[in-house]
């Protein structure tokens, strides 16, 4: 019995062990299966995440490509071929008749082919008639041709609007047009895309508002420049002297909620000016606003409008030309007619303007009203038909007239130019000075005519009349040596040269209190870099090679004097910097503490004071000081900007900042 029981126990134990092994194997297999399922799930999740991340990456690539297309709009458009009238013509060819057809079919074919050829020839005749009309200055032909050029241009991306309304001023050879611009949503609101794991969605990251607005403004400028490029490139007949372009957006006005056109950019440019541009390399906004003097909305995202330079509907309605084929000489024009021309210019610019009575006009030649909100209002205009530089007293008189009349602004229009003193007085005041060259440009830009002496259509120099005409912009190869005059101009020059005639220069007389001995010097610069070492006028180099800047022996009350022929300075010079430094020989241990009560007297060639320019006083431990700089404006006039930067290292440290190497 004991043996049987023991065997039964062993068998039961073996069964339990087998059952345990089976359970362990089953558990191991189940765990392996679970690991396999988990691994498969992780792989699926990883693949799914990669797929979603790829979607976000593709979305970001699409956004980047869209932005790159907008940023390169102008450059890509300039690579497109220019439009030519030949593309409008059709070839005189029709498909041949299929061989083996019946006589009836051939007769039908011949009738059809004759009709096709007649249509083609009629179309080509219309194109020839249009081009002939364009050569003759026909407004309808000009509008039709240049509209076709814009619609046919291949340089525009898909999706941008192309709507144009145009008119042609045959007298001024000017095309005036409104061109539709893309709306704000052309710039993608999203900057990039990212996959959000927890939310299981691809989410757009918003583009910063300032970045989106800047890009949109750049797109608008590129569109306007590309329109100008397409028009001038298509003009194979010489029909365009200038173009007045307004870019508008057709959308809901955020102020009123009504849908309608809002002008966001406007420019008027001549062919000669536009031909100097290299559009593939420009900054579009800077080119349009600064280079071409156009206007571009500063808040285009809010559709803040600008005033158009000229509208198509104004062509033929109140816009006049003067002098037929020969432009009138503004120097020789009757004074009343000249005032009327200036009034007409203001009206062409979108203002209301009338000339005043010849007597009791209170110093006002033209009364103008700018209807623009906020910045508009009453404008008093004085007209000076001069040849010599307008004295600062005329600008002071205008300022008094503005105050007496309660006007918002005063404008002084002249056929000559303004000196630094006039611009210095006008700075910061509600005054605008329009020199002769700028006046001629404005007349041409608004379909009016006028020139400054000579012949042709430009603002050339004239002769005779009220005095010498403005000097050349660059010094001639040979000219009379600087002579002597009266007053400050009688000081003997320390050199001779071709810096212009006696009447073409100014004298800068420097004065200060205190006994410190100073060297007063001048730098002829482009920006903050001197043109070269020869254009640094100081005690060892008393004059520039062309004689346009030279040191003079001062006359009381001045302690130093420099003669400058501003209009004869090199064309690339846009700045004349005047500096003062302690004389290390006379005052080796001095600084500029004693340099107080200082100023610059601006005198004409006869020594007549034109303006007194304030400069900064000296400071402790400083031995050199930038007194100020005369800066050339776009119209050729010069403004004085007060300096004030001091240097402890004397003249050597100062001139090194302007690019002069000191051994």
Automatic annotation (TrEMBL):
SUPFAM superfamilies: Restriction endonuclease-like. Residues 514-658 form the TerD domain. Residues 1-11 have a biased composition (Low complexity). It comes from the Bacteria. InterPro entries: Restrct_endonuc-II-like, Restrct_endonuc_IV_Mrr, TerD, tRNA_endonuc-like_dom_sf, Type_IV_Methyl-Rstrct_Enzyme. Residues 14-38 have a biased composition (Basic and acidic residues). Residues 450-467 have a biased composition (Gly residues). It holds the Pfam family Mrr_cat. GO terms for molecular function: endonuclease activity. Residues 1-38, 450-501 are annotated as: Disordered. Residues 331-443 form the Restriction endonuclease type IV Mrr domain. CDD domains: TerD_like. Keywords: Endonuclease, Hydrolase, Nuclease. This is Restriction endonuclease. It comes from Kitasatospora albolonga.
């Amino acid at each position: 019995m004991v043996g049987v029981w023991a065997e039964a126990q062993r068998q039961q134990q073996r069964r339990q062990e087998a059952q345990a092994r089976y359970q362990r194997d089953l558990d191991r297999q189940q765990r392996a299966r679970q690991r396999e399922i988990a691994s498969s799930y992780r792989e699926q999740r990883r693949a799914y995440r990669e797929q979603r991340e790829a979607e976000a990456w593709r979305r970001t690539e699409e956004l980047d490509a869209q932005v790159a297309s907008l940023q390169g709009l102008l450059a890509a458009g300039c690579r497109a071929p220019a439009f030519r009238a030949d593309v409008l013509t059709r070839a005189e060819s029709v498909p041949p008749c299929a061989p083996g057809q019946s006589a009836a079919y051939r007769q039908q074919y011949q009738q059809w082919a004759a009709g096709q050829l007649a249509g083609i020839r009629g179309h080509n005749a219309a194109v020839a008639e249009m081009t002939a009309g364009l050569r003759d200055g026909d407004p309808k032909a000009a509008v039709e041709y240049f509209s076709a050029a814009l619609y046919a241009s291949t340089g525009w991306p898909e999706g941008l609007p192309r709507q144009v309304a145009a008119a042609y001023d045959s007298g001024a050879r000017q095309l005036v047009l409104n061109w539709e611009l893309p709306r704000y949503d052309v710039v993608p609101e999203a900057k990039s895309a990212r996959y959000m794991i927890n939310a299981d969605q691809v989410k757009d990251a918003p583009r910063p508002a300032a970045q989106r607005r800047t890009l949109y403004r750049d797109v608008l400028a590129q569109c306007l420049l590309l329109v100008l490029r397409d028009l001038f490139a298509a003009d194979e007949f010489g029909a365009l002297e200038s173009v007045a372009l307004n870019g508008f957006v057709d959308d809901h006005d955020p102020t009123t909620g009504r849908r309608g056109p809002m002008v966001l950019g406007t420019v008027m440019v001549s062919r000669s000016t536009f031909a100097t541009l290299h559009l593939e390399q420009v900054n579009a906004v800077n080119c349009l606003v600064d280079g071409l003097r156009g206007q571009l909305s500063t808040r285009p995202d809010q559709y803040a409008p600008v005033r158009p330079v000229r509208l198509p509907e104004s062509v033929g309605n109140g816009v006049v030309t003067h002098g037929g084929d020969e432009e009138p000489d503004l120097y020789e024009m009757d004074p009343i007619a000249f005032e009327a021309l200036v009034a007409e210019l203001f009206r062409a610019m979108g203002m209301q303007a009338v000339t005043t009575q010849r007597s009791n006009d209170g110093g006002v030649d033209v009364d103008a009203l700018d209807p623009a909100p906020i910045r508009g209002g009453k404008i008093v205009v004085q007209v000076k038909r001069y040849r010599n530089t307008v004295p600062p007293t005329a600008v002071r008189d205008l300022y008094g007239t503005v105050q007496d009349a309660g006007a918002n602004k005063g404008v002084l229009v002249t056929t000559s130019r303004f000196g630094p003193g006039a611009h210095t007085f006008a700075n910061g005041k509600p005054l605008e000075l329009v020199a002769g060259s700028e006046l001629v440009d404005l007349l041409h830009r608004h379909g009016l005519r006028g020139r400054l002496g000579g012949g042709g259509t430009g603002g050339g120099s004239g002769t005779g009349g009220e005095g010498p005409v403005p000097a050349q912009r660059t010094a001639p190869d040979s000219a009379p040596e600087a002579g002597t005059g009266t007053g400050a101009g009688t000081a003997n020059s320390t050199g001779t040269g071709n810096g212009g005639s006696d009447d073409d220069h100014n004298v800068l007389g420097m004065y200060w209190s205190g006994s410190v001995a100073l060297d007063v010097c001048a730098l002829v610069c482009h920006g903050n870099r001197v043109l070269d070492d020869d254009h640094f006028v100081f005690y060892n180099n008393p004059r520039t090679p062309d004689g346009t800047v030279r040191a003079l022996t001062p006359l009381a009350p001045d302690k130093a004097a420099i003669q400058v022929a501003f209009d004869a300075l090199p064309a690339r010079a846009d700045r004349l910097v005047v500096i003062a430094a302690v004389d290390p020989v006379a005052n080796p241990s001095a600084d500029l503490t004693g340099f107080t009560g200082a100023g610059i007297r601006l005198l004409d060639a006869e020594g007549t004071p034109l303006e007194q320019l304030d400069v900064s006083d000296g400071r402790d431990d400083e031995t050199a000081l930038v007194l100020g700089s005369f800066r050339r404006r776009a119209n050729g006039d010069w403004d004085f900007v007060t300096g004030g930067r001091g240097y402890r290292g004397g003249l050597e440290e100062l001139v090194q900042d302007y690019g002069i190497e000191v051994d």
